[in-house]
Amino acid sequence: MPVRFREAFPDRQLIVVSNREPYEHRWVQEMGELEVIRPAGGLTSALDPVLQALGGTWIAWGSGDGDAEVVDEHDRVRVPPEAPSYTLRRLWLDQRDIHHYYLGFSNQFLWPLCHLRPALTRIRRRHWERYGDVNRRFAEAVLEEAAGQRAAVWFHDYHLALAPAHVRARRPELTLAHFWHIPWPPVEVYRIATQGAELLRGLLANDLMGFQVRPFADNFLRCAQTMAGAEVDWDRSTATLDGHTCHVRAFPISIDVDAYVEAATRPGIDAQLARLKRRFTGVGGQVGIGVDRLDYSKGLPERLKALDLMWLQYPELRERFTFLQVAVPSRTDIEAYDELSHKVERLVWQINDRFGTGIWQPIHLLKEHLPASRLAVLYRMADVCVVSSLQDGMNLVAKEYVASQVDGTGVLLLSLFTGASEEMDGAIDVNPYDPENLAERLREALEMPVEERKKRMRRLKASLRTIYDWMAEIFATWGRLAASQPGGGQT
Ligand code: GDG
Predict the structure, then answer these.
(1) Helix, coil or strand: residue 277
(2) How far apart are the C-alpha atoms of 175 and 168, rounded to whole Å?
(3) Which of 33-47, 76-90, 469-483 has the lowest average pLDDT?
(4) Strands of 243-378, DSSP E
């Protein structure tokens, strides 16, 4: 992958900018020592080796309690600790920044807005002001890191919508790209954003704006046209504002497929699978799995209602089908998340109370973060995987399940409202808003003949690409654009 970046940009250094950092230093109090945590996210683990090979810079919020301890006077630390090869530039957020920029504007306004939940949005002037302030500080950090250099700056996600315009204003010759990981809403919903035009102006300063799937890119262009007054060329998929053209494309993100295959086939796994299956269900029974951050966009209560209905309507599935839900708590400082967490626990308790027997528990709820290698084993064990998001940019769980299904007999139930559903072929489509539909599809999956299951899984695997394909495509498109722009040709 570093080669792909170098092909696209022979003489530019890569600067990645994201809210979350790839390495976090934390105090282990009882030992009086610092430990380094690597957040398990797919994006950080895919980009980290690229930066290690290229030696660029990653700018992010220094969120670890030991982060300040290890940086130099410019807030920089070389990472990874065991073989330092690139620079992590940390930016500090105080409690007010976290409250207004991160929990406020990013996660209580942009997140629900983009996931079509206007009733959950909170519009507060202070949130917006801090969001602008933190974005300016991110932009300052980019300018410092890019000083005196030709650079390609890659922003990530909804926390940083305003930073590109600040960077563009000061360094017009830098090439800027942004990847928006979550959906972009239709203009009818986006109009709720009082500061919608300013957010668009921030993002239109990029040369390349990437979305997960085409409909989100189209929504963005429509918003740019009607709310920011940009001139949109629908054939070329560009939006031009104040003489600057932003190219808008879909790049469906994916996972490190080989890493999941490897984890799902490691030595000794057969015995482990047999043990796990015995633990969750009797011999011959079937297991379903769901893996989600505890987020209202993932449709967890809807999934639980469908399971309830299924065991009610098809009593023959009691003691024969068990569901395992991995639900990692997330953004617990926000009320809507706290409420969701309680609701999910309550529903699971009610279902287990209603259908459970002396020898069988219908739902196992695991509210803990498991290592990715253990997830792969659970995915391989599960006969069905349920993704019931109400809205989802892509949904990587669907792809992880397919990658881990090395025997090729599992069935994927996939919500129509995920980016993955636009892209993948072979899943059983489900409508999470309709519990009867979801319950019936689930029973259908459990009764599906093995040949049909294998056929579907083959199609799913054929449509599965890797995160490295995703990155290569972005670098190639971005490099072509940069080379064709005035002054963008490589020197
Ligand atoms: C955003 C967009 C888009 C979950 N529990 C554990 C664990 N996970 C991992 C999964 C998966 C990831 O978290 C969740 O990814 P998703 O794609 O499902 O969703 P978001 O977190 O909402 O991500 C989404 C994504 O960005 C990428 O662009 O697809 O649409 O919302 O990888 O495996 N990982 C480990 N232990 C757990 O217990 N290790």
Answers:
(1) helix
(2) 9
(3) 33-47
(4) 244-250, 286-293, 321-328, 363-366
pLDDT of residue 491 exceeding 50:
no
Residues with CB under 6 A from ligand 1: 40, 42, 181-182, 253, 291, 293, 326, 328, 369-372, 375, 392-397, 400
**From 155, 179, 251, 291, mutation site for ligand 1 pocket: most ligand atoms within 8 A of C-beta:** 291
Sign (positive/negative) of CA torsion 263, 267, 272, 274? positive
Overall average pLDDT of the 209-222 stretch? 98
Cis status, amide bond into 22, omega within 30 of 0: no
For the CA of 393, the closest atom of ligand 1 is 30
pLDDT > 90: what percent of the chain? Answer: 83
pLDDT, average across residues 327-340: 91
pLDDT of residue 40: 65
- What angle, rounded to 10 degrees, do the helices at 163-170 and 196-204 form? 50
Confidence class of residue 490 from pLDDT cuts 50, 70 and 90?
A: very low
Ligand 1: which residue has its CA nearest to atom 21? 293
Report the distance separating Cα 108 and Cα 295, nearest Å: 12
- Name the helix (H) or strand (E) containing 174: none
407: left (phi over 0), alpha (psi -120 to 50) or beta: alpha
